[in-house]
Design brief:
By secondary structure, this protein is of the alpha+beta class. It has a domain at 25-77. The protein has helices at 8-17, 39-45, 55-64, 84-89, and strands at 22-27, 69-74. Helix 1 (8-17) packs parallel to helix 3. The protein is elongated, with a radius of gyration of 16 Å. The model is unreliable at 1-7 (pLDDT under 50).
Length: 96
Amino acid sequence: MVVPSHTNCGLSGTSAARGFEYVVLADFHGLGTMLHPSKASDKWRGKRYASHRDVIGEMISALSARGIRMILFTHPLDGHDFTAELAVLTPKREGK
């Protein structure tokens, strides 16, 4: 089921109505976009990869109010999936 991010109360209500104990959400995946503000990411990659709104915090609050836990899955970029633009901005790691 896909629920638009701007309807967090809808997600928590639907989850509660269906008896969910927890919700798993992927954040920082694919192109490394985040559903929360990040000063570190803004400084490193520019402001286009992080949300200006804290969707993660809103979802945690809405779900917690209904007694539902949230598990946050992250998949940070590790270099092999960098665009050429990001590769230039990223310091090289020893042995890589």
